[in-house]
Design goal:
Two copies of one chain form a homodimer. Helices cover 74% and strands 0% of the residues of chain A. Chain A has 202 residues and is mostly helical. In chain A, helix 1 crosses helix 2 and helix 4 runs parallel beside helix 7. Chain A is elongated, with a radius of gyration of 21 Å. Chains A and B meet through helix 6, helix 7, helix 8 and helix 9 of A and helix 6, helix 7, helix 8 and helix 9 of B. The first copy, chain A, binds a DNA duplex (18 and 18 nucleotides) through helix 1 and helix 3.
DNA sequence: GTCTATATCCAGATAGAC
DNA sequence: GTCTATCTGGATATAGAC
């Protein structure tokens, strides 16, 4: 009994260390990029030795891949609540657009994630692809189905329309926040919301 | 006379070396990012010594800043020809959108530039701002004026509309090319063109 | 599993001859 | 202005004790 308990305690602290490494490494990668992050700082931030980091993740690339992949899967859950896709388009669409935009604009970690994903998409193409698959495809499909279920909207190509919608929103976040364009080309979020509502609902 | 000519020849080769350093360094930065680029390879690619690179550019950061700034100023010229902004909207807008989209989708160097600009926008915020100013503001203004000069289009907020337009186009390029989404969520360019035409021209 | 200590290499940057 | 040679620090990664 005692041995088992000891084992369990040991495994717990190990898990905790791995957890600390993962979260700390994520912070480092988001702040400094892939090449700009050192394994020394990753270890220091997690409060463990470098050798421990290497014993859990084969090398720097392995650690990076694990982090990005995990994050790509996780994030797409909480972007929007698909149960809200019921009701008349005027209300539903406005709510959808507002929620998604505000979510992106206020989430600095998500912004840093997008930054590194794009920045490293040359070196790590598969990670970019996985993100596209996990983040873009689900909302695309769901919103398409919603638009198609309302033929009175008269939308000839719902998929293209949803891409236009998402694209203008993501691009807005990028120019305003990621690229620090808030002061250079300022614009209230509501104007983009109204614009999309106007052009989509005719 | 002879001395002057010698001097001129010497200055010519110097300029040539600087040119070689600039173009070579650009290739390196575009391929490997800021932190991933080494001054050794920059020097080697230019066929000069490292000391020569440092004598012309104070340090790595200075070289990078010079390159990105120069490129931000230069590129915005050839994106579109504003003389083409005369005629009826159906023709002008379609041509504008098609040209810009095809230009972005086929220019791999521009794509790599966007990648590094976003990737390093955390470390070099002023460069990102300069690019926003040089690349976004001019077309934004010009297209806005065009739309406003055609009140029959019934566009309530031309600036927001142009942002929607440009945003969806840039985002399309990013997902398809930068993030290698061509095979994962394929879509013909024409569909986005038609979609924009439909929603903007009502 | 985790540590300290270390091997090995390569980075940015400069000194000094020519 | 340009080179070779070098300084110095910090990077990835591992060996070996506990």
């Amino acid at each position: 009994m005692a041995r088992i308990k000891t084992k369990e305690i040991e495994r717990e602290t190990t898990v905790e260390k791995v957890e600390k490494i993962l979260t700390g490494a994520m912070q480092e990668f988001l702040a400094h990029g892939y090449a700009g992050t050192s394994m020394d700082r990753v270890a220091a931030r997690a409060g463990v030795s470098k050798a421990t980091v290497y014993s859990h993740f084969h090398d720097k690339e392995g650690l990076f891949r694990a982090l990005i992949e995990q994050s790509a899967h996780k994030k797409f859950e909480d972007l929007f609540d698909k149960s809200l896709l019921e009701g008349e388009p005027k209300v539903v669409l406005r709510y959808l657009i507002t929620t998604a935009l505000d979510g992106m604009l206020s989430d600095q970690e998500h912004q840093a994630f997008v930054r590194i994903l794009i920045g490293e998409s040359g070196r790590f193409p598969e990670l970019a692809k996985a993100w596209i698959h996990d983040m873009m495809t689900p909302p695309l499909k769901i919103i398409c189905e919603y638009l198609d279920s309302h033929p009175e909207l008269n939308i000839p190509d719902s998929e293209a329309t949803v891409r236009m919608m998402i694209g203008s929103m993501v691009h807005f976040m990028m120019t305003q926040e990621l690229l620090h364009g808030k002061e250079i080309i300022p614009m209230e979020t509501e104007r983009l919301v109204e614009c999309l509502m106007y052009h989509i609902l005719k």
